[in-house]
Design goal:
- It is built from 3 helices and 3 strands; from the N terminus they run βααββα.
- The radius of gyration is 13 Å and the shape is globular.
- The chain has one domain.
- It is an alpha+beta fold.
- A 3-stranded mixed sheet has the order 1-2-3.
- The chain starts with a strand and ends with a helix.
């Protein structure tokens, strides 16, 4: 499995500048092979990782699950 390390701060800043979502970027990275995407802080410590699936159908399932979990966490903060 290919391993890709991404500096989280720069990545999310770039998404804002390009006005795009991480899911759009992830979909462009799909090539039939799973990849481990590792998000790092500025000190190269692992913040979190994501296994990019080998197909867009699974990516869409992941996106929906992430959106639901994120929404649930936000509602719990209120």
């Amino acid at each position: 499995m290919q391993r890709i390390e991404i500096k989280a701060e720069g990545f999310f800043e770039l998404l804002k500048l390009k006005d795009t979502s991480m899911w759009a970027i992830f979909s462009q990275m799909i090539d039939g092979n799973e990849k481990e995407i590792i998000f790092l802080d500025n000190e190269d410590k692992i913040l979190f990782n994501y296994i990019l699936p080998s197909n867009t159908e699974k990516l869409e399932e992941d996106r929906k699950e992430f959106s639901k979990e994120f929404s649930d966490k936000l509602s719990n903060l209120n």
